[in-house]
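Methods — Computational structure assignment.
A single polypeptide chain was analysed. Its primary sequence is given first, followed by the predicted tertiary structure written as structure tokens.
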Amino acid sequence: MAVFSEHIGINVEAKEDLDSHIYFAVSCQDGKIANNGAEASGILMTKPKNGESGNLGCVGELPFQAGGAVSAGAKITVTTSGYCTAAGSGDHIVGKNGQASVTSGSIGRGLFNFNNPVYAFSSSHVA
């Protein structure tokens, strides 16, 4: 059984069926799956259907759906369809992977902060 720490979250109304997208990145602006790190507002922690309220984890230790291999300690960004992947140069960083590497399609565990100022997100500027 996976155990996750407390997180700071917000509720958002789903504007599409998200019941099969737990642990994917979502935008609170439109209530849909995020397609990049700049658009993402948090990780979906519940399974809302269209029109229902869902909880997004915005800051803290959160599970995530990996869309590619992510090494332990690697910086994380969001790619198309709300998947989290390893950040490259110039990507909008939303978090950092935990102590274990994650394979594509697996659930990872990382430290996230979707509320940092934009200048803090380019991996070419972050140590």
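Note: Strands lie at 7-13, 25-27, 32-33, 42-44, 53-65, 75-78, 84-86, 95-97, 107-113.
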